[in-house]
Design a protein that fits this description.
single chain; 483 residues; alpha/beta; Spore Coat Polysaccharide Biosynthesis Protein SpsA, Chain A; UDP N-Acetylglucosamine Acyltransferase, domain 1; 2 domains; 14-stranded parallel sheet; 30% strand; elongated; binds uridine-diphosphate-N-acetylglucosamine; binds calcium ion
């Protein structure tokens, strides 16, 4: 799309249509709330609309109204909600939407809540073309090999004379392959007047917005069309097949954008990056990655393979291998993985480590501190430089309440400890292997449980006679290796 040149500084409004039933989705979730690359479809439509700086951004709702309105309150509190009544059709939807547009004149855009790839540049281009030509209506069109289902653009030479819906078209009109995208720029006054004249005398008994084009011409308005070359920009989601197809396409575009900004992506086809994710230069994304939500990935990191991060912050130079992470922070130059589960509230310091088969939750693990192997650390604080021995468990839950564990700086927790919360391990203390830590360990102390090991000589040969173990024990004894 060409650069916008003389876009009016503020548009009168954008009306986003989102009242339709979305029957073909066969879903209890309203169509426009289905997520794509981390945002609901209608949220994508709103982000595109914001780019043209409308005085009023209106979303027209009806089907599953409450769910849609509550989502909009979360993601676009500035959007105005217009309710469509029981008169059906895109014309009626726009008429209801215009009740929320305060301006008396100027340019107003109509877009759909289920057209996720439409972007701000395309809308700005539409506004420029519309205002430069002095049009009453400018419709964004696409040339399709298969135009089935779409409204067809009727022309008299270069001039657009109207739009005919597929269901109302003659066989000759059905042969036209220039279709109505459903995205338009209108002169607000012309649109208001024309909608007052739109009836429901058509195959579907609906108020068609498309009738406005012919009506505008009748009253002397200029009607134009702006064909776009990238038809995917205006493709709508009607079913879950299109949801997946357009979702993959949106992801392809997002991944490409990051690669152009210096992110190394080994396998774009298995790399999924949400709309709100940021990634620094020279970070390498290995195959099989999903970066969701508001992930902020630093530069020079290595992420993957096979990792899913949601709302995770990763510092520069960190390594994240086969990790499932949610609402966690990984410090610069830290390493996590493989096979590691970071739950909400995990904060790992600079050059820290959370290793294989570990799970952490609500745990602040200091700079250079390590939880290297097979451990669970929850509701805990681990000071800088501390090492947690393999297979150590923080028992944070007594079956009723959760309690906190505080481990100081440069502590050496032995392997296979159970730290029964609430408990505190002072700075520079240590615990023996297999310690059940029920009481605080003061700074600098060694905490151990006094459980003596006793060996019963000859037990295997006596009690497990005939086994491979008994034979091995006998051989060892005969060779004098028993000790
Ligand atoms: C509409 C156009 C058609 C165009 C096609 C592009 C009309 C009459 N036809 O057809 O020319 O080629 O879009 O996709 O405009 N909606 C409401 N309220 C309603 C009906 C629809 O808000 O009463 C919303 C829907 O939620 C959807 C959009 O309008 O976002 C389009 O509705 P849809 O039923 O898909 O229109 P089509 O029949 O496909
Ligand atoms: Ca449609």
């Amino acid at each position: 799309m060409s650069e916008p040149s003389s876009v009016s500084s503020q548009l009168a409004g954008v009306v986003v249509l989102a009242a339709g039933a979305g029957t073909r989705m066969k879903s209890s979730l309203p169509k426009v709330l289905h997520p794509m690359c981390g945002r609901a479809l209608v949220h994508h439509a709103i982000e595109a609309a914001r780019a043209v700086n409308p005085a009023d951004l209106v979303v027209v709702v009806r089907h599953e109204r409450e769910q849609v309105v509550s989502h909009l309150a979360d993601v676009a509190a500035d959007a105005l909600i217009a309710d469509q009544d029981d008169i059906p059709g895109t014309g009626r939807a726009v008429q209801c939407g215009l009740e929320k547009v305060k301006a008396a004149n100027g340019t107003v855009l109509v877009t759909y809540g289920d057209v996720p790839l439409l972007d701000g540049d395309t809308l700005n281009g539409l506004v420029s073309a519309h205002e430069e030509a002095g049009n009453a209506v400018t419709v964004l069109t696409a040339l399709l090999d298969d135009a089935t289902g779409y409204g067809r653009i009727l022309r008299d030479g270069d001039a657009v004379t109207g739009i005919v819906e597929h269901k109302d078209a003659t066989p000759e009109q059905l042969a036209i392959n220039e279709v109505n995208s459903g995205i338009y720029a209108f002169d607000l006054q012309v649109l208001r007047d024309a909608l007052g004249k739109v009836g429901t005398d058509n195959a579907q008994g609906e108020m068609y917005l498309t009738d406005v084009l012919a009506i505008a011409r009748e009253v002397g308005g200029k009607v134009g069309a702006l064909p776009i070359s990238d038809a995917l920009l205006v493709e709508g989601v009607n079913d879950k097949v299109q949801l997946a197809t357009l979702g993959r396409e949106m992801n392809r575009r997002i991944v490409e954008k990051h690669m152009r900004e210096g992110v190394t992506v080994v396998d774009p086809a298995t790399t999924w990056i949400g709309s709100d994710v940021t990634i620094g230069r020279d970070t390498v994304l290995l195959p099989g990655i999903q970066l969701n939500g508001a992930c902020e990935i630093g530069s020079g990191c290595e992420i993957g393979p096979d990792s899913t991060l949601t709302d995770v912050k990763v510092g520069d130079g960190a390594t994240v291998t086969r990790v499932h992470g949610v609402q966690a922070q990984i410090g610069p130059e830290a390493t996590v993985g493989p096979f590691t589960y970071l739950r909400p509230g995990t904060v790992l310091g600079r050059k820290g480590k959370i290793g294989g088969f570990c799970e952490t939750k609500n745990a602040v693990i200091g700079d250079g501190a390590k939880v290297p192997h097979l451990s669970y650390v929850g509701d805990a604080e681990v000071g800088e430089g501390t090492n947690i021995g393999a297979a150590t468990i923080v028992a944070n839950y007594d079956g009723v309440n959760k309690h906190r564990t505080k481990i100081g700086k440069h502590v050496r927790v032995g392997s296979d400890n159970v730290l029964v919360a609430p408990v505190t391990l002072g700075d520079g203390c240590a615990t023996g292997a297999g310690t059940l830590v029920r009481e605080d360990v003061p700074a600098g102390a060694l905490g151990i449980n006094e459980v003596r090991q006793r060996n019963i000589e000859g037990w295997t040969e006596a009690r497990r006679a005939g086994t491979a173990s008994a034979k091995a024990a006998a051989e060892s004894r005969e060779n004098g290796e028993g000790k």
